[in-house]
Amino acid sequence: MLDKLIGVIILALALRYYTDVLVTLHTFGARLHIDRLRSNVDWLMGFPSGFKPNIELDQFVGKILLLIFDYW
User: Where are the domains of the chain?
Assistant: First the structure.
């Protein structure tokens, strides 16, 4: 019974302040998304499959992508 009451109170607060809730969720989700992209770029800048024909180009493109993520 208490868990239902807490759920209804949280739902009522979320509906009342839905714009603040959506902005908070969007900010958290965007940050999580950028962190995941950054870790994937770092992984690709290494040797994930053991084969990189042009290491300098790989590092250059990876660093450019990381700069774009910082400005984003």
Answer: 2-71
